[in-house]
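Fold these two proteins, one after the other.
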Amino acid sequence: MKVLISDPLAREGVDRLKEEDNIKVREAPGLSQEELIRTIPEYDALIVRSETKVTGEVIGAASHLKVIGRAGTGLDNIDITSATKRGIIVMNTPGGNTISAAEHTISMILALSRNIPQAHFSLRSGEWNRKKFMGTEVYGKILGMVGLGRIGSEVAKRAQGLKMRTIAYDPFISKERAEQLGVTLMDLEELLPEVDYLTVHTPLSSQTRNLIGE
């Protein structure tokens, strides 16, 4: 099997593939669409992250392609309809970045509440405006989450550790499951006016595009 990796991947993952005798791996990050279209016909598998756009044109040129692997969660950079028509399997790794995404979310909330980017820029400019960038505590604030799946539930746990109140909109999560997580479920229209901070943890699809607003 010939595998093309068109985005940077963790060395450990690439090395594990190369250990297999029946797999021939080529790493080619940064290919343009035209280069990818010219290259893809000779490969059986394609592994991408988010940078590579696997369009219908790319899939149409992939005469031997059997599987597309997405090292990550979102699949909006892959034309799944075209892949399905060609009988190409599309796979992702939904749990691979759950903790990282949750931690990043909390770090962004703290940076926002404490004006960290603005204070950093001010300090590097030779200024010291401590009062201007004091910000506010997140203690007791309300965090609203759109999506309470793997990432949303991990964000909720961390926010609760900071003594934030957690509310969420997710039509696919039961009230019982939300209660187990210590989260109050609400309709989206009910949730939005209540929140101090809003996070979104949904895959991009026709149902979720512009869910919050254009």
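Now the second one:
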Amino acid sequence: MSSVSSPSVTEDPAEKNPAEKNPASAERIPAGERREQILAAASRVFGERGYAGATTDQVAQAAGISQPYVVRMFGSKENLFVEVLGRALDTLVVAFRAAIADSKAAGEDVEARGARIGAAYADLISDRGILLSLMQGFIMGHDPVIGACARKGFLTIYGIMRDEAGLSAEHAVDFLAHGMLFNTLIALRMTDAYGADDRVDELVGCAFRTKLDLVLGIVAIESRVATESAKQA
């Protein structure tokens, strides 16, 4: 079930991506897969450039399709971002509910359950776009459409912590606060400076705890990819 509601835009079945115009170059991709491809690309673009700085053309380039196709499928940049935000929140809901189910099956107490859910959240750093697009949504409370979706999603997460995980109000608030710290450190790219500053090492190490090696490993991979891309440019 989606955590946020988003405007419905009818896809034009006649619109094809550039590759589809040449049957010999690629097979036609089902609409559902194409939609997910665009949302994944948009998540990265919005996360890196922010809502104001991102364009549907940049999303199209990241997805490897035409800009008109993006507009036909989603209607507007606002609609696209609402879909991206809903996708990110749904990812959180699925991950948290899976962690809660595993915790209950293992007979863990509430404290251990909270730690397990936190670890599940840290695992999502492998898709930096998800966490950063959440940040973009959370700082747009002033927007009548995006702000409403972000608030609804945030309260959904709080409700899961209270009603399904069984956390106290204080524990649930601490969990949300720590999650926002995760997002802030990722947005600041503080992890990129790990090993070069003792204060950074202390802050990042305390924040990510047992997931530090995972986080640093992902940062190292992203750094190598960026270096290789720069060489090829």
